[in-house]
Specification:
The chain is α+β, with helices and mostly antiparallel strands. The protein has 7 helices and 14 strands. Helices cover 28% and strands 21% of the residues. The strands form 3 sheets. A 7-stranded mixed sheet has the order 1-2-3-6-4-5-7.
Length: 309
């Protein structure tokens, strides 16, 4: 059973783009996010001089995947300062240490390895790491503790706007309900939707962030006259960066891709302007529009009793 989390963020100079101290209430982890332009302020935070892990983030610009570098050190502050001299791509660092001084070199090596592996699997960022970190051999109790801390790190990074450890398609939460819709509650289970156009078949799911087109989906090889310039440019970008592989008569998607809406997703697949709600269908034959309408029809307005005079 998942429990809610209370995340506390302290802004020392009351700016959301400056230094941000983050902690989950009643947990021992300590996080500090700092812009590259203000690294000199790390000396004011003794927690950054401890053993820990850190992530260097590139700003998200355009449709390309931003870069991220995952590292560890027995003195994170000193290590990050060396990266200021020898790594050009990043503009923000997030540092994770512990308030109780119980993190050792073996712990942070384990965390570094797991962070790199989960980041690679999630596929939202391009890893700048040249080598795969070696995972420490910890006793089972220590591994469990580090996995618990890893989940706290995931929550903090997402809260800061860096969902680097989040899979594009979650196992249940936040997606369209299937046959029975839970009234006045968020949908609780995924429905894989299918879009068939010409000889192309694509699969996707609606999520809290938008619409994910799944790996292995097919798309039209050429765009039509009705294709807007933004989607046309994205299609070409995805071919250039390897997310789309060009086949004889279609494009093949090689990884999950998040789109802002089902209509943008359908348009990307078809190569022509499309209505997403009328293009994507559930296994039972219902369109996405029918599913969405059924949710809206069953919502009870707050304060409505259903009684009539």
């Amino acid at each position: 059973m998942a429990f809610g989390k209370a995340v506390r963020i302290f802004l020392p100079d009351a700016t959301v783009t400056g230094v941000r101290q983050v902690e989950i209430v009643n947990r021992t982890g300590h996080a500090l996010a700092c812009p590259r332009s203000r690294l000199d302020e790390l000396k004011n935070w003794p927690e950054t001089g401890k053993p820990g892990v850190y992530l260097l983030f590139e700003a998200r610009l355009g449709d390309s995947k931003p870069l991220v570098y995952v590292g560890e050190s027995e003195n994170v502050r000193d290590r990050v300062l060396t990266h200021d001299r020898n790594k050009e791509f990043w503009n923000d660092v997030v540092i994770f240490t512990s308030k109780d001084d119980n993190l050792t070199k073996s712990h942070v090596k384990y965390l570094e390895s797991r962070l790199e592996a989960v980041t690679r699997k999630a596929g939202r960022y391009e890893l700048e790491n040249g080598n795969t970190p070696t995972q420490s051999n910890l006793p089972r109790a220590e591994r469990e503790s580090m996995e618990e801390l890893l989940d706290d790190i995931r929550i903090v990074l997402g809260t800061l706007g860096y969902p680097v450890l989040e899979s594009l398609v979650q196992g249940g939460a936040g997606c369209l309900a299937s046959q029975s819709v839970a009234i006045a509650a968020k949908p609780s289970s995924e429905v894989e939707l299918t879009f068939k156009v010409n000889r192309c078949v694509a699969h996707g799911v609606q999520t809290e962030e938008g619409f994910v087109i799944k790996k292995g989906s097919m798309a039209a090889k050429e765009g039509g006259a009705s294709l807007n310039a933004k989607i046309q440019a994205l299609r070409q970008k995805m071919i250039d960066d390897g997310r789309f592989r060009v086949e004889d008569d279609h494009l093949m998607l090689l990884e999950d891709v998040l789109m802002s809406s089902s209509s943008y997703a359908a348009t990307l697949v078809a190569g022509t302007s499309r209505s997403g709600p009328q293009s994507w269908f559930a296994p039972d034959g219902r369109s996405l529009k029918t599913i969405e309408d059924s949710v809206l029809d069953n919502l009870v307005p707050v304060g409505a009793s259903g009684d009539t005079d």
